[in-house]
Amino acid sequence: MANKKILPIPQVLDVLNPFKIRKQRLMNFNPAIGTAMRPPADCSKITIFNYSPSSLEERELTKVQDVFPYLESSNITWINVDGIRKDDIHAISSCFMIHPLLEEDILSVGQRAKMDEIGEHLFCLLPMMYFNSETSTIEQEQVSILLGKNFVISFQDDPTRDLFDPIREKLRIATSRLRSGMTDYLCYALIDIIVDNYFVVLDKLGERIELMEDLVQHQPTTKTLARINFLKRELLIFKRAISPVRDLVNGFLKSESDLLEDRDTKYYKDVFDHIIQCTELAETYRDTVLNLQEMYHTQLNLKLNEIMKVLAVVTTLMAPLTLIAGIYGMNFQNMPELKSENGYYLTLGAMGILLVFMIWLFRKRGWF
């Protein structure tokens, strides 16, 4: 255990303000002002994958108007918008006839994961979770996915990172299942890779929890308690974000839309199983952290009991010695022992013998 390197976890004072911001976003979100709250992205990137089993076109567009011709494409088109800008979203929504309510959801901030079926489109919104190893905090990005007849459009908040590179690699392989699948399979693949990354985040949290178990046993300090409370808050944020994803996937399973192929139902069931497992694991980690809090208080009580035990033994050993010293410290005239030539040495010897006898007796009875 001595070789383990304890990864940095922010001090509680350093984490307090960022956590308050996340708490306000998660607990006090008002969907009526969500669109107004979103700042425009500093940069935006639009990538296109237009493919069929025998062909693939991959492009990165510089302006949103270049997306419009793909509406009439006979191939399957995946449009990925990295960086949300209101004008761009409105232009795409107008071209692809996206309902205004869905457009508002795409532009919103901090929405709860959900799935909607409006008109000829299926729409889902869910969090993409990341673990920041430098600060040991959980970060999330809102991802919106729109499923149409021959297209899938995904919208991401952060243009600097995403999890979709494995999907892009598979699309570049002519024999891959993605290239031969329909749009609902591509939609499944996007949701599946987001859900799979939840387990990666949980693994990182599990490592922190394991380290906390060692610290609680060997260093039950106030700093350790602050780290435990920090982990509990991060787990709360994580569990609150991913719990609605179960209903989202269940919505696809119950949908009777023509956009969903019967043969792909088993894939959505697989994602449903994964999100249930992830939610249960997050709950297990939360219970573990609560147990760590109890263990911390137990360790403190044990430490306090040991201190009190030592103080009680010392007090008990000193009590008879203090009594003897007190008796011979009285100022009575008629105390024969005071006139004894060896009285001082005899008294000290008796006190020493009594002290040794009491220590032997306490040890024999297992009192310390």
Q: Brief description of this entry?
A:
The protein is α+β, with helices and mostly antiparallel strands. Helices cover 55% and strands 15% of the residues.
List the helices and strands and how they pair.
Blueprint: H1 12-27, H2 34-37, E1 45-52, E2 55-61, E3 76-82, H3 86-95, H4 100-107, E4 114-118, E5 121-132, E6 137-147, E7 151-156, H5 165-171, H6 177-180, H7 183-218, H8 222-242, H9 245-254, H10 265-327, H11 343-364
Parallel strand pairs: 3-7
Antiparallel strand pairs: 1-2, 1-3, 4-5, 5-6, 6-7
Helix pairs in contact: 1-8, 3-4, 7-8, 7-10, 8-10, 9-10, 10-11
Walkthrough of the structure:
The protein is of the alpha+beta class and 368 residues long. It has eleven helices and seven strands. The protein has helices at residues 12-27, 34-37, 86-95, 100-107, 165-171, 177-180, 183-218, 222-242, 245-254, 265-327, 343-364; strands at 45-52, 55-61, 76-82, 114-118, 121-132, 137-147, 151-156. A seven-stranded mixed beta sheet has the order 2-1-3-7-6-5-4, sandwiched between helices. Helix 3 (86-95) runs antiparallel to helix 4, helix 7 runs antiparallel to helix 8 (222-242) and helix 8 packs antiparallel against helix 10 (265-327).
Query: Unreliable segments (pLDDT under 50, ≥5 consecutive)?
Result: 1-7, 9-19
Structural class: alpha+beta
Query: Rough shape?
Result: rod-shaped
Can you count the helices? 11
Total DSSP E strands: 7
Strand content: 15-25%
User: The biggest beta sheet, please?
Assistant: 7 strands, mixed
Average predicted local confidence, pLDDT: 83
Order of helices and strands: HHEEEHHEEEEHHHHHHH
Biggest sheet strand order reads 2-1-3-7-6-5-4
Percent helix, as a range, is: 40-55%
Distance between the termini: 29 Å
Radius of gyration: 34 Å
